[in-house]
Amino acid sequence: MNRRTPASGIRRYLNAVNLGGLAMVVLSTLPLYWMIASSFKGPGEISAAPPGLVPESATLGNYAEAFVRNGIGRYLLNSVLVSSVSTVAVLGLSFFAGYALARTPLRGRGAIMTTLLMLSVFPPIALVVPLFLLERQLGLLNSYAGLIVPYVALNLPFAIWIMRNYLVGIPRELEEAATVDGAGPLRTVLTVIAPLARPGLFTAGIFTFTATWAEFLLALTFNSEDGHRTVPVGIALFTSQYTVPYGTLFAGAVAATVPIGVLVMIFRRSIVSGMTSGAVKG
Amino acid sequence: MNAVTSSATVPRSPAPPPAGPRTGPVPRGGGPARVSRRKRARTGWFFASPALLTIAAVTVFPVLFSVVLSFADVRLEYGGFRLLSLTGDHYAAVLSSPEWRHALLFTFGFTAVTVLLELVLGTAAALVLERLGAARGWVLAVLLLPWALINVVAAQLWGYLFNGTYGGLTWLFEQILGHQPDILGQPASAMGAMVVVDVWKTTPFVAIVVLAGLMLIPGDVYEAAEIDGAGAWTTFWKVTLPQLRPIMAIAVLFRILQAFGIFDLPFVLTQGGPGTATESLAILGYKTLFQNLDIGRGAAVATTSAVIVIGCCLLFLRVFRTQADEGGRA
Predict the structure, then answer these.
(1) Which residues in B lie closer than 8 A to residue A107 (C-beta atoms)?
(2) Mutation to test the B interface, candidates A115, A275, A277, most B Cβ within 10 Å
(3) Among A1, A29, A128, beta carbon nearest to B145
(4) B contact residues 44-83, partner A, Cβ 8 Å cutoff
(5) What CATH number is attached to the domain comprising A194?
(6) pLDDT per residue over A114-166, tens digit each?
(7) A61, A247 Cβ separation under 8 angstroms
């Protein structure tokens, strides 16, 4: 709904709004621009005061260093693998669970939903201690499964909430028609509901992928060995090695940001609707 | 991220049963083709159990295990661990330690300051966004970028900007103050730096959620306010803000929980320093566990923060729910 403003003030009002919008864009992007620009600066330029806004002699040396010497490519591959597998597993499990909670007469549904909410806000630090010991006992430290399994479990509650809220909105008549035509429950869900649930799956998927891509605490404590490190751990441990090689660090940071940035831009509608649709229903 | 949309529906839980099959359309062909309720429930459990069992095995069970650990003496051994004995000493030691009290105070302070700033700035940004017109989608897309940035990357980036000798912000402050401030080296400014980074990264999230609330306010409410001769300021306080309250409560609850568990930002930006100035509860728990290898005490620290988070969540939902009910009746 458009808001009406006194006609005399419109001009000034619009300017203030546009300035506010501009300020938001500049404040959001300037630090990011700084990171990208610095990733192309040579070592002398990066520590120069005053710092230059534009790299004077742009170089790809930092990227070569990050990929060849610091093995950022390996961390990226690890992250892609862990995040993708976790996301696919979360989507599969949450779709069926969300359907069950939205459509079938489960006893204790309210209790299940409340428990899921409590779990989705549970501080990860409280899980690190027991999971670390359990994984140690099972020999899962420094393995892909050692991260994927907790990532799936940690992201399931929220994904189930999204799927359930989405599926509640799909008309019942559609699946009833399929049931009448003789399809079993599994076939009905896979052929009738799943295609309709695609927007909900996109939302749950993008939230899970961004969360697992950025996850730090478990990745740091469970997979600290170089071969299984994920991107956030690799970037965090850049500093502790020697004096901070900022150029290389930012090359790695840009490489870590590009995949997630592209995904977020592609699925930005799903993100905004995911942030807001549940609230609308509340 | 989680929980924002989810917490939205909770105040009304348990969810009302969907307008059931009783009122549904009559099946074609006349016969009672409806599957029995018991059979449908069995299908439901069949569909839900893989997810619920995963959650039970990987989160619920470990949480219970962690509570046991917090009362136990544990020794790490090659490839495993051994429970030695059960005591209640860890909680006494944790609750009376100055480190824990300081971490608790810092975590509360950090949470309060960042959430308040993010709420005020996010609401202001949402009001601007709502009026932006054609450029809005584009600005929203840009605002998603800091939100999507990995926390660790954000911490490294701002660590560079705050760097003591050649950081861009240090240079800027030097031009203004006349001397080079050691931003991350002084307790007060290090805390301030952490707040700045968190606000920079998370205000867009609050703005987008509040914007959704703004879009939901019916236009005739504003028309009524205009007819009554209310100015822009009065309209905001008396009309917009009360209507936004439920969605703001959701955003605030979610931000409180997230800020309370903050780990990666202090771990990378300040390492909890200088000294222990920016040591959050999560950092304290991590250090107790992985640097001092004090498993039982680490579990106790973790359990205290989990109890506080769950307590805040329940309290908040209760307060918010009664408020919403009163608002509905008024």
Answers:
(1) 41
(2) A275
(3) A29
(4) 44-48, 50-52, 54-55, 57-60, 62-63, 65-66, 69, 74, 76, 79-81
(5) 1.10.3720.10
(6) 888 778 778 888 899 899 999 988 999 999 999 999 999 999 999 998 899 88
(7) yes
Q: Count contacts between A and B (CB, < 8 Å).
A: 398
Report CB contact under 8 Å: A35, B10. Answer: no
Contact B6 A158 (CB under 8 A): yes
Percent of chain B with pLDDT over 70: 86
- The answer to whether position A53 is within a domain reads no
Host domain of residue A16:
6-39
Q: What is the ipTM of this complex?
A: 0.89
8 Å CB contact of A1 and B17 = no
Q: What is the pTM of this model?
A: 0.87
CATH superfamily placement of domain B90-329? MetI-like (1.10.3720.10)
Cβ proximity of B54 and A93 under 8 Å:
yes
Contact yes or no for B59 and A127 at CB 8 A: yes
| Position B135, amino acid | A
A101/B contact by beta carbon, under 8 A: yes
pLDDT tens digits, one per residue of A46-93: 877 677 788 888 889 899 988 888 889 999 999 999 999 999 999 999
Note the pLDDT tens digit of each residue in B290-299.
Answer: 888 888 999 9
The C-alpha of B280 sits at a distance from chain A's nearest C-alpha, in angstroms, of 11
Tens of pLDDT along B170-188? 888 888 888 888 889 899 9
Closest to B173 measured CA to CA, from B153, B199, B193: B193
Rounded to whole angstroms, the Cα distance separating B54 from B49 reads 8
Query: Which amino acid type is present at position A54?
Result: V
For residue A239, pLDDT over 60 is answered with yes
Domain ranges of chain B: 41-86, 90-329
Determine the Cα angle at A129 with ends A126 and A131, to 5°. 100
The predicted-structure confidence for B196-223, as pLDDT tens digits, reads as follows: 999 999 999 999 999 988 988 888 888 8
Question: Residue B49 has which token pair?
Answer: 């159990």
Q: Which two tokens stand for residue A229?
A: 């490190």
Give the residue among A76, A44, A72 at the shortest CA–CA distance from A249.
Answer: A72
Specify whether A153 is located in the same domain as A26.
Answer: no
Q: B312: burial class by Cβ within 10 Å (0-12, 13-18, 19+)?
A: middle
Tell me what percent of the residues of chain A surpass a pLDDT of 90: 49
